[in-house]
Amino acid sequence: MTKRAQRRARARVNAAPTQKQETIAPLKVTREHVALFAKPKPARVDPFALPEFPRSATPAVSLAQDDALSATGAWAAQVLAAGQIDAALEGQHFLGYPTLSAMAQRPEYRRIVETIATEMTRKWIRLVNRKGDEQTQERVDLLTDALERLNVRDAFRRVAEGDGFFGRGHLYIALDGDQVGDELKAPIGNGRDAASRQKVRKGKLLRLQPVEAVWAYPQSYNTINPLDADWYVPQTWYVQGKAIHRSRLLTFVGREVPDLLKSAYAFGGLAMTQMAQPYVANWLRTREDVSDLIAAFSVSGVKGMDLANMLAAGGTADLQNRVDLFVNMRDNRGFMALNTGEEFFNVSTPLGTLDKLQAQAQEQIASVCGIPLVKLLGVTPSGLNASSDGEVRVFYDFIHAYQEKLFGENLKRVLGFVQLSEFGAIDEDIGFEFEPLWQMSEAEKADVALKRTQAIMTAEPALPSDVVMRELREMADTTGVFTQITDEDIDAASTEAPAPEADPDADQPDGAEPLPDRSDDLLPELPQAAE
């Protein structure tokens, strides 16, 4: 091609009309768009603010102590805010009795609290006759019947549930005539002192009434001198318009909070439900996420559809009808027709480890309450020779320690009041022990019985016969053997003359028989040790 032809071709190209390119506006994301889909932040709260109570459960006039606590709480809240700690985000504030009451409906919280409260009262207590005489034993039997009649075990179970749900429980000692005048304001002692003997006469104890924390408002507490024994200890509780002395309304707090927070928690403790809230919330969120993922784990579509022309031509309805038809006919016997150039695809999310993630989120709930999974969730350990006996034993040790902590002192008071109402006096030879929760198997009982019997019989030559019999009978409660040894057998053994000691060097006379072995006469056939 000559140079002239090249110039003519170039001129024709330049003269041809060019297609106008459509300008596409860039995508802009403003702060308004971000705020529209932003997750709401929890409001900052004052963890030292005084809690709210029903109007009927509070006194008409605020006490001076409330003003002092408010000033202290304001100072603590200011220091906390300066440290940039969000108490609401961390769950470090009293949730309030309405919120805690609503949380008590969830099975996750209720299972925790009821398991602990039930285990604490399942085997309950055993009254102990320290003196060992018949008269004291008769009183022990009468006192046992009185505890059952007053339903003491169920009352303490309900108090333990109040401690778990609300961080504080109360037990009202109802006496005959205590509703007259200002009698409720008068102290009744600790169940064993002179005040108790004067106030609790024979037959005056009517019942034991559990009271929820929301109905008890603290009054008359010492906020002046931390060196006093009654520092931050309410002397009076205001219950639905009535002022009651603290000796009549026993208080149970298992998990106390620091002094700065006691007013914010209404002089209660930390509820187990509040402690478990972050773990339960994580489990609920995981459960919902897993459920949503399973419901939409598979996504289907069609590639190659001319959506631009379809939508431009007003075919929105046709597109929607096509999608709805596919969804309605989507099963193993369904059929899908595609246009030329279209291609069906399906994307599925793997679900192989969802069960483990969900189980781990649920099992974390047990970490805060210390309950073994087999008791809390019914999950048994897997694997060869796997057993949860060790975890259950540790849990029972925790329950025993918590019984002493939550019930111990107040249970002594209640037993004192019951004795005064039943006998008119206190028998110091009557005590109590919490029954052990762990139960031995039959093989373990036989093994323990054999070893203890061998130890007793080893020392038998140096012990009186009645002592040997008494030691053997003591094993009956734990091992189930030697249950037929009676007091008459022990008395008969104590009157037997001791057998003369044989002289190994002395010659036996003609025709004389050796002395019999006393252990064969005293003991039945011993059980065999478990192999």
List the helices and strands and how they pair.
Elements: H1 3-15, H2 31-36, H3 64-82, H4 87-90, H5 97-103, H6 107-122, E1 125-129, H7 134-149, H8 152-166, E2 169-175, H9 194-199, E3 205-212, E4 216-219, E5 236-239, E6 242-245, E7 249-252, H10 259-262, H11 272-295, E8 298-303, H12 307-312, H13 316-328, E9 343-348, H14 354-363, H15 365-369, H16 373-376, H17 389-406, H18 408-423, E10 430-434, H19 442-458, H20 465-474, H21 476-479, H22 487-495, H23 518-522
Antiparallel strand pairs: 1-10, 2-3, 2-7, 4-5, 5-6, 8-9
Descriptive overview:
This protein is mainly alpha-helical and 531 residues long. The chain folds into 3 domains: 55-275, no CATH class; 278-334 and 353-392, no CATH class; 442-499 and 516-522, no CATH class. It is built from 23 helices and 10 strands. The chain has helices spanning 3-15, 31-36, 64-82, 87-90, 97-103, 107-122, 134-149, 152-166, 194-199, 259-262, 272-295, 307-312, 316-328, 354-363, 365-369, 373-376, 389-406, 408-423, 442-458, 465-474, 476-479, 487-495, 518-522, and strands at residues 125-129, 169-175, 205-212, 216-219, 236-239, 242-245, 249-252, 298-303, 343-348, 430-434. The strands form 4 sheets. Strands 3-2-7 form a 3-stranded antiparallel sheet. A 3-stranded antiparallel sheet has the order 4-5-6, with no helix packed on it. A two-stranded antiparallel sheet has the order 1-10. A hairpin with a 2-residue loop joins strand 5 (236-239) and strand 6 (242-245). Helix 6 packs antiparallel against helix 8 (152-166), helix 6 crosses helix 11 and helix 20 packs antiparallel against helix 22 (487-495). The longest helix is centred in the middle third of the chain and has 24 residues, at 272-295. The N and C termini lie far apart (111 Å).
